[in-house]
UniProtKB/TrEMBL annotation:
Family recorded in the similarity comment: Belongs to the short-chain dehydrogenases/reductases (SDR) family.
Gene3D superfamilies assigned: NAD(P)-binding Rossmann-like Domain (3.40.50.720)
Lineage start: Bacteria, Bacillati, Actinomycetota, Actinomycetes, Streptosporangiales
Keyword Transcription part of the UniProt annotation: no
Keywords, in A-Z order: Oxidoreductase
PROSITE patterns to which the protein is assigned, alphabetical: ADH_SHORT
GO MF terms, alphabetically ordered: oxidoreductase activity, acting on the CH-OH group of donors, NAD or NADP as acceptor
Name of this protein: 3-oxoacyl-[acyl-carrier protein] reductase
Protein's GO biological process: fatty acid elongation
One Pfam short name: adh_short_C2
Residue ranges annotated for the Ketoreductase domain, each copy included: 8-191
Keyword Transport among UniProt keywords: no
Highest taxon above the source species: Bacteria
């Protein structure tokens, strides 16, 4: 199925690296006009700008911390001035760390919940006035939310909360014609350095025997944004190779 997003307007948070970057590129290739945000300047942002220009797309890159309500408001204002409306919102901004539970500080817990869960609430809430009829909201979850991962209790709890938020929003916003879903990746090969022994353990848990590619996650996001998924809402789609 050839998915076209021509004339669609989208916001993708955390789009300069990894899965977020793959989503931004995939949306642009499919014809959508995309605003994305990033927290830190650097080579990743510069590279994304160059790649978007190479596709003939306008690189709408906005520096914003989506854990801060004032910066979310500024980001949404940029979407209003640059795009006029939003047909899709992809909450991809996130963070993770590995901390034994007995040493997990309240500050680390709050940082994880704020980045992985509260930011999605803030972004969706502030974007509501811009959402066009039939708009699609995609929250990027994690397979960890339903299986649990040692040393990542804070991350797992936040991603599990994202599933609950999604189910509630699907029911509350559904009468307005908005769809809300979760894409939950399993282990994915990104530019982040991961020890080989950890990668091997991941591969041993996956039925397909390999890690996913960011583009494979992005393809599912494209489906959920497209009109082809017009009757899909409130779902969590696991893209994990058969963990």
């Amino acid at each position: 199925m050839d998915i076209s997003l021509r004339d669609k307007k989208a916001l993708v948070t955390g789009g300069s690296r990894g899965i977020g970057r793959a989503i931004v590129i995939a949306l642009a290739r499919a014809g959508a006009e995309v605003v994305t945000c990033f927290r830190n300047d650097g080579a990743a942002v510069d590279g994304l700008r160059e790649d978007l220009e190479g596709l003939g797309a306008v690189p709408h890159l906005v520096k914003a911390d989506v854990t801060r309500p004032d910066e979310v408001e500024r980001l949404v204002a940029e979407c209003r001035s640059r795009l006029g409306r939003l047909d899709a919102v992809v909450n991809n901004a996130g963070m993770t760390s590995h901390v034994p539970f007995e040493r997990l500080s309240a500050a680390e817990w709050r940082a994880s919940v704020d980045t992985n869960l509260t930011s999605a609430m803030l972004v969706v809430q502030k974007c509501l006035p811009l959402l066009a009829p039939g708009a699609s909201i995609v929250n990027m979850g994690s397979r960890a939310a339903t299986v649990g991962v040692p040393l990542r209790a804070h991350y797992t709890a936040a991603k599990a909360g994202l599933i609950g938020l999604t189910r509630s929003l699907a029911k509350e916003l559904g009468p307005r014609g908005f769809r809300v879903n979760v894409v939950a990746p399993g282990p994915v090969a990104t530019e982040t350095d991961v020890p080989e022994e950890v990668l091997e353990r991941y591969r041993s848990l996956i039925a397909l025997g390999r890690l996913g590619r960011p583009e494979e996650i992005a393809n599912v996001v494209l489906f959920l944004i497209s009109d082809a998924s017009g009757f899909v809402s409130g779902e969590t789609i696991h893209v994990d190779g058969g963990v």
